[in-house]
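Look over this entry.
=====
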Amino acid sequence: MPQAKRSTTAAARRPRALSRLEKSIDAAQAALKDLRTELGRGRRDLVKDLDKTLTDARKNLRSLSSTVAKDIEKLQKAATTRKPTPARRRRPSARKKTTTTRSARSR
């Protein structure tokens, strides 16, 4: 029975933890939008700083997500295209003789 071909979309290659993080950032931005309408003018600087922080977090998440996807592809490629290593002959290791010394007290 042939196996079904897996989807290779960006969302499918990304780990679930990164998807959850993206959803959390989306929720934070939606909450910030609601908060912006409720706050007065004096708090707009705070909202602006939070908006900038969320934007930077989203940008870093995109970068991290693409890095993780590339690393996963490299690992999959390395796992599937592994060269067989030739069998090595092992030489018997030389054994050292150990001598035990008695201390003067045990005589």
The helical segments are 10-13, 16-38, 44-80. The radius of gyration is 30 Å.
